[in-house]
Amino acid sequence: MNYEWNSSIATGIELIDNQHKELITKINILLNNCENKTTQEELTQSIDFLTEYTIKHFFDEEQLQKKYEYPDYPNHKKMHEDFKNTIRNFKVDLIMKGASDQLIDDVHKKIGGWLVNHIKGQDILLGNYIKKKMAAS
Questions:
Q1: How far apart are alpha carbons 25 and 118 in whole angstroms?
Q2: What angle do CA 93, 43, 59 make, to 5 degrees?
């Protein structure tokens, strides 16, 4: 199962939405590599690229939160830090165990599922807040 971009996860903030689309693409590549049991090197490259892109996205998103004085910034930042730790742990599991069925399940639940739920819950609230602040300016 791959993840797809749709309007239910649009925040209305172009930068965030474009980066979310790219994150979904990266998660799908990682899932496909896991399911196809590609080489350890290819799997590591996929998780490394997803990690780097996630760090960039979270940084950009947090800068917007600071710029618009988002009141839930500390909580939102903590969620981002927890997710980065999840990806780091995932990479260790990937290196130690390879692309197992459990690992594929973890990608779905702990990475793909988390991201979609985070977008639907937290990032849409953030987008609504930023749009209101922009309209008031």
A1: 16
A2: 80
Q: What is the pTM of this model?
A: 0.87
- Asked if the structure places residue 66 within a domain, the reply is yes
pLDDT above 90 covers what percent of the chain?
Answer: 46
What is the CATH number for 46? 1.20.120.50
pLDDT score at 105: 81
63 closest CA partner among 126, 137, 136 = 126
Residue 37: inside a domain, yes or no?
Answer: yes
> What is the pLDDT, as a whole number, of residue 115?
84
**Residue 43, domain extent:** 12-136
Token pair for 14: 């172009």
Whether 5 maps to a domain, the answer reads no
